[in-house]
Specification:
The chain has 11 helices and 13 strands. With 294 residues, it is of the alpha/beta class. α3 runs antiparallel to α4, α8 crosses α9 and α10 crosses α11. It is globular, with a radius of gyration of 20 Å. It binds uridine 5'-triphosphate.
């Protein structure tokens, strides 16, 4: 049995080049999905799974992230005076979800390097890593199951999803064997962004990880890999080959990819359609719009 993970690390120090020029001054992680920054969905998912402390790995020019998760007394007073209670609750939410911590990554040297900056925060407990590119629908279960599996089996636990062959080269990919538990696989090897011909399966690592503290030693010896960046996948592979157990939880629920512009547009439309306040008129308009374009 391992200690139950209750801290989460959210790397948010990347350059966001795929969304330029929007991300020249605004962090990619704060781009709105309908009316809520992507990062708030992620912190809310952590909080819903009993994570109490969240470390955001940030960078120069990204101070707006800490602003978003801070209280805003003047704005709160103004909304209170106007009697805008619903809006008041919405803006207070971000500052009440979890205890927020920040660390700076001096240079965007890769996801592995970003996670390496969480060593002091993690202490000697396993911890969650969450990427802002993957939004998991709050009605579907993933992170809680992953935390349970890590508590029981220790080692590394990854969120996995089946993706079409032509997409596998965008992800970390895993070689797996079944376990006697439904939806949980044992992982024997990992490879970052493989060509389709080299992919060991159609299971991609989506942006949820539970990592043991041994990852920090592995990261220290990881050389730059794909794209010249320190890859988290390479450090996890070092641990896997050294005998650390690695398991995957195969997710079959609703996931919204916000990683590039096309996926981002799809995520905004999907989530807008789901919203009780905006969904019905938006779907009506969208249906007519698509019919006119056909
Ligand atoms: P991405 O590769 O999606 O983000 O990394 P990016 O590098 O900002 O995007 P592009 O490719 O230039 O458009 C996944 C997450 O990891 C963080 C990013 O901020 C993003 O949330 N990240 C990436 C870091 O914190 N540090 C890094 O060095 C790289």
């Amino acid at each position: 049995m391992s200690v139950r993970a209750r801290k989460a690390v959210i790397p948010a120090a990347g350059l966001g080049t795929r969304f330029l020029p929007a991300t020249k001054a605004i962090p990619k992680e704060l781009l709105p999905i309908v009316d809520t920054p992507a990062l708030e969905y992620i912190v809310a998912e952590a909080a819903a799974n009993a994570v109490t402390d969240v470390l955001i790995v940030t960078a120069r020019g990204k101070d707006a992230i800490a602003e978003h998760f801070d209280a805003k007394p003047a704005l709160e007073e103004a909304l209170e005076a106007k009697g805008s209670t619903a809006l008041l609750e919405r803006i207070r939410r971000s500052s009440t979800l979890a205890r927020m911590h920040y660390v700076r990554q001096p240079k965007a040297a890769g996801l592995g390097d970003a996670v390496a900056h969480a060593e002091g925060f993690a202490g000697n407990e396993p911890f969650v890593v969450m990427l802002g590119d993957d939004l998991i629908d709050e009605r579907d279960e993933l992170l809680g199951t992953m935390i349970d599996v890590q508590e029981r089996l220790g080692g590394i636990v990854l969120g996995l999803m089946q993706v079409p062959g032509e997409d596998i080269s965008k992800y970390g990919c895993v070689a797996v064997a079944p376990t006697d538990e439904d939806g949980i696989v044992a992982i024997s090897d990992l490879v970052e962004k493989p060509a389709l011909a080299d992919a060991p399966s159609d299971l991609a690592i989506i942006g949820r990880y539970i990592l043991p503290t041994e990852i920090f030693d592995a990261l220290r010896t990881t050389q730059p890999g794909a794209g010249g960046e320190i890859q988290l996948t390479d450090a996890m592979r070092t641990l896997a080959l050294a005998g650390v157990p690695v398991h995957g939880v195969v997710f079959t629920g609703r996931r919204y990819d916000t990683g590039d512009r096309l996926d981002y547009l799809k995520a905004v439309v999907q989530l807008a359609c789901e919203r009780p306040d905006l969904g019905p008129p938006f779907v009506e308009w969208l249906t007519q719009f698509v019919q006119q374009r056909a």
